[in-house]
Amino acid sequence: MKLSAMPLLPGGRPVVGHVMEIRADRLAWVRRIADEVERTKRITTLGADAVLVNHPDVLQELLVEKARHFDKAQMVRFALYPLAGEGLFTSRGDLWRKQRKIMAPMFHVSQMRGYAADMAACTDRWIRDWKDGDRVELSRETTRITMSVAGKTLFDAETFTDADAIGEALTVALAWTDENAPSWNAIAHVAARRAGLYFGERWRQPWLVEGSRRYEYPRHFPGEGGRRLKAAIALLDAQVAKMIADRRRNPQAAPDLLSRLLHARDEDDGTGMTDKQVRDEVLTLFVAGHETTATGLAWALHCLCNHPEIYARVEAEVDALGREPTFDDLPRLGLTLRVFREALRLYPPVYVFSRQACQATSLDGYDIEKNTVVILSPWALHRRPDLFPEPERFDPDRFLPEVEQARPKLSWLPFGAGPRVCIGNQFAMMEGQIVLAKLLRHARFEPIGVDTPDPGATLRPRGHMPMRVHLRPRLAAEARVGREAAPCSGVPSGL
Fold first, then answer.
1. Is residue 91 part of a domain?
2. pLDDT, tens digit (0-9, with 9 covering 90-100), for 173-228
3. Is residue 52 part of a domain?
4. Residue 77: which of 358, 363, 286 has the closest Cα?
5. Residue 241: inside a domain
6. Which of 305, 434, 439, 443 is 20 to 30 A off residue 29, Cα-Cα?
């Protein structure tokens, strides 16, 4: 069937279609997907059709069976290019396939044991300075922890003294991404590129096709936001360039991911990565390696605080270990993992993403032209009552093996699926499990006020989730001894 036969989501305006609604309130927009899209529906954006998908069967077709027919959408590339360049999250086609193949062994399950020790150590460095009764902004604390983990595993940075400067630069870059992903500037660039490709191919004018490439990513950054972005990117580039130069001078210095990226070779042609490609992959991994896990951890603790009976069960599970959690303890922390997974269901950090047809194809029985954008929302999918009964209820036991096996594939989608599934998904799940266990062993958390989701680049808490921390009685003495015996130089103390 032609795409025009697909049901149209009501509410579009003349000319601009649904663009204004998407820009006005993104979370309200994805709620509409949850409420009104059973399988697929069509929307319009500036006269072009786009497709909304909200069913596991269609997602299987899109992300797995016809993955080669679709690629990253241009809007994503435009918004993330200044920060991520041609890293795994934004690259497409042969470059993406080559990079994915080179990097996949670095995230194999066999590598996880070493990463687990780093995760535990980085958590200790931050939480040892908490005092009983301290007020903390939890999402900032989890960000500091996961940023330290990323620094250790990527750069072998023991204390990561540049964490605050790098963190601020990343925050600036992500804020620019958040503001510009749905901006008229981005929409105009995407429309111009689409027009150049369409008319260039239709009229057989290669110069139009070639000229459209200048609209693949932003070239000018006007205003104060643009100046701050350029300064942030310059700082990140300088830091990463220095680290790359140090590793090239001393290639045996550290067994971190940066060294592995520099040494990696394509098994087919033997080529490695340029410094620019290494830079793009490092910053992509750094952002992906801390932002989404930090957000998921904050929401997991938020959910536990609102469900004291589940909180008590998880705390008992952690206490039953009788020691600090290690890699070997992961099988004994099943409920802890299920809590993290359920938090990712309710508050998926990447709550909406898209694909773009790179060739004519079909989806759910409808014809899809080249360059058609397909939009999907894990937040909406995770609220289907046929997949998750009482979907707004926090229930970690939804992820008991027997319950999970009864659901269709691709019912839970915080990391994507298919060939482009997040390369670090196992890393993130293990980090969430270990850090959450350590936090619960160390302290009890008491919410201060109510927090709500802020649908920016990721689904962060709007108010940074203020909490009161109460050191657990038998651990308070350990914390005091730890501070006296092993002060944490290099990591900023306080909150």
1. yes
2. 888 887 766 554 555 656 666 666 666 677 777 766 676 666 566 767 778 888 99
3. yes
4. 358
5. yes
6. 305
